[in-house]
Amino acid sequence: MNEYIVGIDIGSSSVCAAAGKIDKHSEIQIMGITSSNCIGVKRGIVVDIDNTSESIKRCISSLERMVDTKITEAYIALPGGISELVWNKGVVAVSSEDREIKENDVKRVLKASKIINIPNDKEIIGVIPQQYIIDGYDKIKDPIGMCGLRLEVDSQIILAQSTVVNNIFKSVNKAGIKVLGVVFEPIAVSGVVLKEEEIQRGIALVDAGSDSINIYIYKGGSLKSISTLPLGGDIITNDIAVCLKIPILEAEKLKIKYGSVAENSFDDNFKVEVNANYNNKVKVDCNILNQIIEARVEELFSLINRELSKSEYYDELSGIVIVGGGMALINGIEEFGKDVLGKLVRVGIPKYIGAASPLYVTAVGIVKDVSNSIKLKNIPGVNPSKNNNLPDYKNIIEDENEKEMESENKTNGFISRIKDFFTDFF
């Protein structure tokens, strides 16, 4: 099992899992990827542990057949939609006599940045440093090895409701899978569909799921904001079912196979026969189908645009990237989105053979994120915290996390080993 890195994405309509392996060229290869339907999650929150765990079991069982090995361990994603970003500052004095900043100083300043007032029902699950400041000099990405008297950090504190996170862990554990670590979803997804230049210049990532749309804005090389709309692709499916008087399942099939918002989608009209209620068959006019889809997609884009316009970075956004199965699979979505939003729109697709679908971005993103850390640690003489491709917080706080988790595991026992733990959970 150690030769594979497994990532699990638990979504509202499906569970996706990907298995990757680092090849001889130190590149990650996706060896298997699959998905299964899920009805136990609503808007990123587990509402039925039994159904969710069964979906995970089916998904992992299918993945096991693909890679021909037993899977008992995996990494999971923490959804951005259930999280909250809080900005805070930490300040410490450099402890060494020669005033050289050591890794322990960075750990101390990150810990100091977590001293904030939070509601009783929430927990700090991560801290992402945005910049370090040494004796008043700012915009420092990696202070280790530099000299100074005073070390400061401007950081993002990630908050989430502890019960929500616990239920995700319980669902995975009940499926017989040990959680090796957690990856923050906005970071995982951005790693496989966004370019570094885009993240620096300004980009919006729209993760349109079945019942919610998460909007992440990146600028200056980091995540700046998270917002969520309580609507998703299911509302398009529901419109089709109601207007055409067909079952939801048939409406979803029609949307995926024939749905289009392209300019020429109304030119060649044809009818499709589908199963209606009581085993009756009806013929659906594809022009009418696409008019229904277009009306609702335009409304969703308008709501997305309204949400984006609230951001102080709106004018600096170079474009919008759409992922997820709620809208990204609709034919012509890029040009249609450009017309409505007034910005360049593209569908985010992982550049891996067999995984080139917007449905799989999170699962693939988890595998890639984990592999980046593992292969760096296996290279002699390389300090992962000084590698630009790996955010500092993933390694800087890792040792502290492992110590905290050892103590935590003695009481709750639901994670017995944390390896490459990427967020400061609990």
UniProtKB/TrEMBL annotation:
Domain of life, per lineage: Bacteria
Keywords, ordered alphabetically: Cell cycle, Cell division, Cell membrane, Membrane
Domain SHS2: 5-193
The keyword Membrane is annotated on this UniProt entry: yes
Localization in the cell: Cell membrane
Mode of membrane association: Peripheral membrane protein
Family annotation (CDD domains): ASKHA_NBD_FtsA
Entries under SMART domains matching the protein: FtsA
Pfam families cross-referenced by the UniProt entry: FtsA, SHS2_FTSA
Record-linked InterPro entries: ATPase_NBD, Cell_div_FtsA, FtsA/MreB, SHS2_FtsA
Any GO BP: cell division
UniProt similarity note: Belongs to the FtsA/MreB family.
PANTHER family with a match to the protein in the record: CELL DIVISION PROTEIN FTSA (PTHR32432:SF4), CELL DIVISION PROTEIN FTSA-RELATED (PTHR32432)
Described purpose of this protein according to its UniProt entry: Cell division protein that is involved in the assembly of the Z ring. May serve as a membrane anchor for the Z ring.
Subunit structure: Self-interacts. Interacts with FtsZ.
Entries under HAMAP family matching the protein: FtsA
Protein name per its UniProtKB record: Cell division protein FtsA
Organism field: Clostridium lapidicellarium
